[in-house]
Design a protein that fits this description.
heterodimer, A: alpha/beta, 11 helices, B: 298 residues, TIM Barrel, 9 helices, 12 strands, 28% helix
Chain lengths: 331, 298
């Protein structure tokens, strides 16, 4: 099982490589990828350096080109695919049908993975992408249960990668417009959910408020920690009660499920967090490397070590972690 | 806007996104049959637990509408996970009589290269190459993703194959997101599998307001919609000028007859208004390239 780690910068890439990643994923410094945040991602020179570093250690490099171009900016995505091919990255991770079609026609030898942003939740969808675009791997949305992941893998013509750790999208990726409803910008169109320029923090007598595009996402009293104001993790009033109407601010952590994921034939586990620090990438990669190795040696008795769990808890968003949809207490 | 409409767009009634009981659905489609809408999309697109009508019963309604001159299209589930859902999907795709609107890539996969098909707002077609890719496989019409603007719409019209029609979501609460979780069940502290079909209690969804009482979202089972009603009534000339072939009116439980009449009047150049139709206000920001929640200019 491959450990695929986030590289939002060259130091993060180094950290992932040194801590035991089998592959890193990264993006160009523009809206062609879904973590288009200020100060993040790679110039061409940095990618050259990153490729050299990764290849020296036998680590693969995947390039995320996983947003949705529109007519006015389409040429930028074509150029990005061409650059990826010229750089000879190990795969491009693509969501858009047009970009996939272009890559397939122009660079048939450039391996293609279907991004989680492609929003394929069934093996019929994977068959389509495989037949039409020859994808080799698909990253499944974080909405499927373990039984559903198994069912997809049993019938899928391509290898399957799942998310193992990091921020949790409770909405199906690639088809969530909550961010643009409040700001005009979404992961699909701009490569960012809840872009920072629309976030406002304010201290008020009633507590600390967080706003996105002017809309009040949450108000917290002293002692409550305030997370990043994505709409899905806000508190709203529904039927006379104010609560986390969509999702508690928890992180995904599927480590305890590693033996099952391995037995299902999941080929890769992805760590979320290209927007996180190199220290985060180092700590999470190190722990997951140890866990995957331990699980591969002896899956039957696998239990996450206490110090691994503690290390992951320290870097998690929110106070708690969850298996996400893989295990469905809410179902 | 002074631009002359190039063609008069047709009116389509989108699939009912809420869980309505069978009598309400039948009464609704009786009204639609007598309405000036030319196209009707039928079927369950949100939650496979909603079973007011089975496929055979939907097909009977489809036959009835077709007999009264409507173009009928069968819409599919937006989030397909279970094998049982794939089974239903296959039956819809193989119905042999009516055009199918794919709501996800599973349906696109089943339809591609076989029969002509359409795609709904939850299939991502953001650029001409994506549209061309599906056009080669039988795409006949697609709903513009709701977050795209008039400029993108016009650019797509100019760049896409002319035989592929563009439909725009012109009225209704915007479908914004899908989840494996059910937020209506969550609001009642119920597990999804034991939801007691609570969506039946909310014929227009359940409103979520911010902590300063701004209506913001509508919880509709596993779907999240806008609380505001998106309407392009005031921009209908501009919509037509952008080359839009079809206007989608998304059903709500009340005053839908008036909504259809207003859009019918507006597309023919007559005065029309929707006063009182959207108690939580209107929005149209997406069309103007802004935040979707932005209210129409007054």
């Amino acid at each position: 099982m491959e450990l695929v780690c986030p590289a939002g910068s060259l130091p993060a890439l180094k950290a992932a490589v040194e801590a035991g990643a089998n592959a890193v994923y990264l993006g160009f410094r523009d809206a062609t990828n879904a973590r288009h945040f200020p100060g993040l991602n790679f110039t061409d020179a940095q990618i050259d350096e990153g490729l050299r570093l990764a290849r020296g250690r036998g680590v693969k490099v995947y390039l995320a080109l996983n947003t949705y171009p529109q007519p006015h900016n389409w040429p930028q995505w074509e150029a990005a695919v061409d650059r990826a091919a010229a750089l000879q990255v190990d795969a491009v991770i693509v969501a858009d049908l047009g970009v996939l079609d272009y890559a397939t026609e122009r660079h048939p030898d450039l391996p293609r993975h279907l991004s989680v942003q492609g929003s394929a939740t069934s093996y019929e969808a994977l068959r389509f992408y495989h037949e039409r675009f020859g994808i080799r791997r698909a990253v499944l949305p974080r909405v499927l249960s373990l039984a559903q992941v198994r069912h997809v893998i049993e019938h899928s013509p391509v290898a399957v990668e799942v998310f193992g750790f990091g921020s949790l999208c409770v909405m199906v990726e690639g088809r969530c417009l909550l961010s643009s409803y409040a700001t005009g910008k979404s992961p699909n169109t701009c490569g960012a959910c809840s872009p920072a320029e629309f976030v406002r923090w304010e201290e008020t007598p009633a507590g600390r408020t967080t706003r996105l595009g002017g809309v009040l996402i949450d108000r917290r009293t002293a002692g409550e920690t305030a997370g990043y104001p994505t709409i899905c993790k806000g508190r709203y009033e529904v039927g006379g009660k104010t609560f986390y109407a969509i999702e508690e601010p928890t992180s995904l952590n599927t480590m305890e499920l590693l033996p099952e994921l391995m037995a299902l034939g999941v080929v890769a586990v992805k760590i979320e967090g290209r927007q996180r620090s190199p220290a985060y990438v180092r700590d999470v990669t190190r722990v997951w490397r140890a866990a995957i190795d331990a699980c591969a040696r002896r899956p039957a008795g696998f239990r996450p070590a206490a110090d691994w769990s503690a290390a992951l808890a320290r870097v998690s968003e929110g106070a708690q972690t969850t298996f996400g949809a893989l295990h469905r207490p809410w179902q | 806007m002074t631009a002359e409409p190039i063609t008069t767009p047709r009116l389509a009634i989108g699939p009912v996104l809420y869980y309505w009981p069978v009598e309400q659905l039948r009464a609704f489609y009786e009204m639609v049959a007598d309405s000036p809408a030319e196209i009707v999309y039928l079927g369950e697109t949100v939650c496979s637990k909603r079973r007011s009508l089975n496929l055979e019963e939907w097909l009977e309604i489809a036959d009835g509408l077709a007999a009264r001159g409507k173009e009928v299209v069968l819409s599919t589930l937006s989030l397909v996970e279970a094998e049982s859902e794939l089974k239903t999907l296959r039956r819809i795709c193989e119905n042999g009589r009516f055009l199918v609107e794919a709501s996800d890539m599973s349906a696109v996969g089943l339809l591609a290269g076989g029969v002509p098909f359409c795609t709904g707002p939850t299939v991502n077609l953001y650029n001409a190459r994506a549209v061309e890719t599906l056009a080669r496989l039988g795409l006949r019409r697609f709903v513009l993703p709701v977050e795209l603007s008039r400029d993108t719409c016009a650019a797509l019209r100019a760049a896409c194959p002319p035989e592929v029609e563009i439909e725009v979501f012109a009225f209704g609460r915007l479908p914004l997101a899908l989840s494996a979780r059910c937020f209506t069940a969550r609001a009642h502290n119920l597990a999804k599998d034991d939801c007691e079909l609570r969506c039946l209690d909310y014929p227009d969804g359940l409103i979520a307001r911010t902590q300063e009482d701004q209506p913001f979202l509508t919880l509709n089972g596993i779907q999240t919609q806008s609380a505001q009603t998106h309407s392009l009534l005031g921009e209908i000339d501009e919509v037509a000028a952008a080359g839009v072939d079809v206007l989608r009116l998304s059903p709500q439980s009340r005053q839908m007859e008036r909504v259809i009449a207003a859009f019918d009047a507006a597309r023919r150049g007559s005065e029309a208004d929707l006063a009182g139709v959207a108690p939580l206000g209107f929005c149209d920001g997406y069309w103007r390239g802004e935040a979707g929640i932005a209210a129409p200019a007054t």
